[in-house]
Amino acid sequence: MDSLRLYFKLIRIAFQARMQYRADFFTGIIGVITLNVVNLGLIGILVSRFNNLNGWTLWEMVFLYCLWILGHSIYSLFFWHIRALEDYLIQGTFDQFLLRPANPFILFIGREVQYLGLADATFGIAGFVLAYTNLGLHWDWVKWVFFGLAIVSGTLLETTINLLVACVAFWTGRSRRVGGLIMQLNSMIQHYPMDIFGTTFRVVVTGLIPVAFMNYYPALMLLDKTDRLGGWGWLSYMSPIVAILMVYLSARLWNFALQRYSSSGG
After folding, report:
1. Rounded CA gap, 166 and 162, in Å?
2. Would 264 be classed as within a structural domain?
3. What is the pLDDT of residues 213-240, one digit of tens each?
4. What is the 3-state secondary structure (H, E, C) of 57-119?
5. Which terminal residue of the chain has fewer beta carbons within 10 Å of its beta carbon, N or C?
6. What does the pLDDT look like over 17-26, one tens digit per residue?
């Protein structure tokens, strides 16, 4: 409980520091919203050329994209700087988190906020409302609960995948290039439905780097498209369980890395 209280206090301080630069805040928000509009515009152009993309209509793909962006917005807001872990390790400034009488992970993740996540959230909510309306969806409470779980699961999956990659820097000193490759893979699967890709790619983004559980699988359940998976339809319900598993794995790796950490002396 004390760690949670400390985390929220650190986040408040970090956000106040960010708000000292108001012009940067507003231009950044506009820039992120514009980028998301362009991304959806490109998807729309692609779908318009083929009427649908392997059975996915334009508004279904808008739904798919916005389901991801809602989870990504929370990651972007609170956990984006996990990717900068290698900088702290190389410069020797990571030691500051170990010298204070508090959980090092709480001190690290409370270090910064990336307010551009607010732009992603704004765009995601607007896009979801439009997609929900145009698809004529009428969910019961079960689907609304699962929708909320899918967003939280997407956040946890993106956070833990990036943390696992970042922890590699404890041994190698560098991890950002690997993180960049995974980010490109993640971007590809979040922009387009996974079933337009080959079997090998599907196996990788399902079992090896489980980015498909951020939006594709839960979207199948929410859009009543689980029949596309055949006998694997149960995968569409697995995002929360996969997220919990990834939290466990990343926590174990983080603790293992801390036990073997030696300062760079920078």
Report:
1. 6
2. no
3. 999 999 999 999 988 888 888 999 999 9
4. CHHHHHHHHHHHHHHHHHHHHHCHHHHHHHHHHHHCCCHHHHCCCCCHHHHHHCCCCCCCHHH
5. N
6. 666 666 666 6
Eight-state DSSP code of residue 173: S
Residues 196, 50: Cα–Cα separation, whole Å? 13
Give the tokens for residue 45: 């152009």
Whether 259 and 98 have beta carbons less than 8 Å apart is answered as: no
pLDDT tops 70 at residue 261: yes
Mean pLDDT of 148-172: 91
Q: What angle do helix axes 239-259 and 141-167 make, rounded to 10 degrees?
A: 20
pLDDT category, 110, cuts 50, 70, 90? confident
Residue 97 belongs to some domain of the structure: yes
Instruction: Please tell me the pTM assigned to this model.
Output: 0.85
Q: Looking only at Cα atoms, what is the longest distance across the chain?
A: 60
Contact criterion met (CB below 8 Å) for 24 and 89: no
Structural domain count, the chain: 1
In a domain, residue 265? The reply is no
Q: Is residue 109 domain-resident?
A: yes
Containing structural domain, residue 152:
2-259
Provide mean pLDDT across the span 169-179: 73
The highest-confidence range among 32-36, 58-62, 260-264, by mean pLDDT, is 58-62
- The closest of 184, 145, 192 to 161, measured between CA atoms, is 184
Distance CA 242, CA 66 (A): 20
Residue among 252, 196, 263 at smallest CA distance from 228: 196
CA distance 108 to 79: 10
Q: Check residue 200 and give its pLDDT.
A: 87
